[in-house]
Design goal:
The chain is an alpha+beta fold. The chain has one domain (about 1-230): Chitinase A, domain 3 (Roll), CATH 3.10.50.40. About 25% of the residues lie in helices and about 30% in strands. It has six helices and eleven strands. The chain has helices spanning about 1-20, 25-45, 70-75, 165-170, 180, 215-220; strands at about 45-50, 55-60, 65, 85-90, 95-100, 110-120, 125-130, 140-150, 150-155, 200-205, 220-230. Strands 3, 4, 5, 6, 7, 8, 9, 10 and 11 form a nine-stranded mixed beta sheet that branches. A two-stranded antiparallel sheet has the order 1-2.
């Protein structure tokens, strides 16, 4: 029952944040508003608050955007100390690899089941929207079934194992946002094997076209902090 109430409240919050979008606003105008919101986010020191009391979830210095060419030139890494994010021009997704992870990247022909924990910040609404990296969702994380088909990575949320995590419970879709799939080409998805070997962790700025269903429908960008961990058999 508590989880049902959580989902209902989450959807109510989303609805309230989107009421400012007028019915007569064109798609082009919505995209321009999104572009400006992302530009403003990049221009300031990003701050994500956990609640209305002002508790900080994440605070970083101003983001430094690098090109794909620079990203590949430095062995597909981003300098976290410099707060670098690579911009993938074809998708509009910005990515920072906080930790590459352990194990290995998903190989061609391979399928893995991953545990994902995250928080989702609505950049346009300037508020935390959903999160699974909290105690409430500790026993029901989001689970993804991921396959590498001839170099193309596809994924879907698995609901048979635990009924679905925060993403599925909120948006009622097994479709994984494309923005979540892009990092899987560059990080290693294993399990934590020692105290100093962390699982893969990324931060993302995801435009509506690469986001979850509600973001796509209502044209708003989201910021994510996201971890990937291979699930035990």
């Amino acid at each position: 029952m508590n989880k049902v109430l959580y989902v209902v409240c989450a959807w109510m919050a989303v609805g309230l944040m989107l009421t400012s979008c007028k019915d007569d606003e064109t798609y082009a105008e919505q995209k321009e508003k999104e572009r400006k919101a992302v530009a403003n986010f990049l221009a300031r020191n990003p701050l994500v608050l956990q609640n209305s009391q002002g508790d900080e979830l994440l605070r970083t210095k101003k983001i430094k955007v690098i090109s794909e060419q620079a990203f590949y030139a430095q062995d597909s890494t981003t300098n976290v100390e410099e707060n670098e994010y690579v911009l993938f021009g074809g998708t509009g997704v910005y990515m920072q690899i906080v930790r590459e992870g352990n194990g290995q990247r998903i190989q061609e022909g391979e399928t893995k089941r991953l545990i994902c924990r995250y928080f989702e910040y609505n950049i346009l609404g300037d508020s935390l929207q959903t999160a699974s990296n909290v105690v409430y969702w500790a026993t029901t994380p989001d689970i993804m079934d991921v396959s590498n088909n001839s170099g193309s990575i596809v994924a879907s949320f698995n609901t048979s194992v635990n009924g679905g995590g925060a993403m599925y419970s909120t948006y009622r879709s097994t479709v994984v946002p494309n923005g979540w799939i892009i990092p899987l080409q560059y990080v290693k998805v294993g399990r934590q094997t020692s105290a100093d070997s962390g699982i893969a962790k990324v931060r993302l700025i995801v435009p509506h076209s690469q986001g979850q269903s509600d973001a796509t429908s209502n044209v708003y960008p989201c910021f994510y902090e996201l971890t990937y961990q291979e699930m035990r058999d």
